[in-house]
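Re: beginner question about structure tokens

> Can someone show what the tokenized structure looks like for a real chain? I only ever see the sequence side.

Sure, here's an example I had lying around. Input first:
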Amino acid sequence: MEAKALSQLLRQFKDKIQCVFLNSCYSAAKAEEIAKNVESVIGMKYSIDDNTAISFAIGFYQAVAAGRSVEEAFELGRAQVSMHSINESDNPVLLSKPDSMGK
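And the corresponding structure tokens:
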């Protein structure tokens, strides 16, 4: 699905969506388009191997399940990647609207 079409679709649910997580290679460009319509979006700057994607997702979703903010969960996901000696902790990017930070 094209980023613009996905962004338009997600705009219909912007009051219900706190974060969109695109855990796939080169998804940062799509994340930028989606970020126009939802509070926070996570994408990947470049290619991501399966182990890195899984490590990030584990840290991120564990933090979300524990009630942490999107920003805290994002940082915990990056820490999870670093703890496994995977040299890609800078691959994930978090895009947030300025008024959504700290929610």
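Each token stands for a local structural state, so reading them left to right follows the chain. Residues 50-65 form the longest helix (16 residues).
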